[in-house]
Amino acid sequence: MAEPNVEACASCAYDVRAELGEGPVWISGENAVYFVDINDCKVHRFSPAQGEACHWAAPGKVAFLMPVDDGSFLAGLPDGLYRFDPTDGSFVKALEVEAELPGNRLNDGCVDLHGRGWFGTMDDSEEAPLGSLYSVTHEVGGFVLRKHDTGYVVSNGPTVSPDGKHLYACDTPNGVIYRFDITDEGELENKQVFLRLPEEEGYPDGVVADCEGNVWCSTWSGGHVRCFTPEGAERFSIRIPAANVTKVCFGGDDRKTAYVTTARKDVSEEALAAQPQSGSLFTFRSDKAGLPQHRIALSA
């Protein structure tokens, strides 16, 4: 793959310097972005217009937040999915995940246009291919979990195309982004390699689709957000002043203001001296609008 065409550099929106920032989601009704610091066990909320921020302590490594219809979030903790209520900061366990794999934890999630959540798991030591991809829906009686694919060292992404027909998911250490077809019944079929990143260009971390189906890939140890067409051709990349770039979300009135989480984890003191805002929340303007932030649908 050719060297990316760097068109712009992001600026710092919130100088939080998280150990492992991840999972930004834009909540339009609040004009705020929520994200997590996995290793510091915190949920952060940042309001760009006011420049105000707050955070909540989580009961463990919180890996992602999936908004729910009622204003709460479904949060990924090491042992399962929890309902997180930002009004009082409470975390209530909703569903156990992989109790048989105590060395695993949850890692990264999204919600599709059908109100269905998608997330992955990983080996917390980042060694064994014990991670899997799941979906979660709410039905009468509670949340229902479905396992779709397995064999990931570190599952990442995932994201769903605007029409809801394709899911993209990463196996980060192996440098691969997969694409699946999503059936009408919500199953995954036709797994194929969407693209591979050469190791010297970083590792694919979180991916997110925009309104035209382009895939925006954050690169761990790559210092960029890279935008690919639905066919896998690179459009351009945005340089981030942090080596470990984890995920993008799109916000603002036009959903063209991107917010990017980063991490200080595994960055040398020398590198931190050169990029002191590593771990912070960065921002740039996109030429394409992101998708509306979907919410997990609650059954009646």
Q: How would you spell out the order of helices and strands?
A: EEEEEEEEEEEEEEEEEEEEEEEEHE
Number of domains: 1
Total number of beta strands: 25
Radius of gyration from the CA trace? 17 Å
Query: What is the arithmetic mean of pLDDT?
Result: 95
Strand proportion: over 45%
Helix content: under 10%
Low-confidence stretches: none
CATH overall fold name: Neuraminidase
**Principal-axis shape:** globular
Architecture in CATH? 6 Propeller
CATH-wise, what's the superfamily? Answer: TolB, C-terminal domain
Which class do the helix and strand fractions yield? mainly beta
Q: Supply the CATH class.
A: Mainly Beta
* Number of helical segments with 4 or more residues: 1
Question: Which strand order does the major sheet show?
Answer: 1-22-21-20-19
Q: Main sheet?
A: 5 strands, mixed
Query: How many angstroms does the end-to-end distance come to?
Result: 49 Å
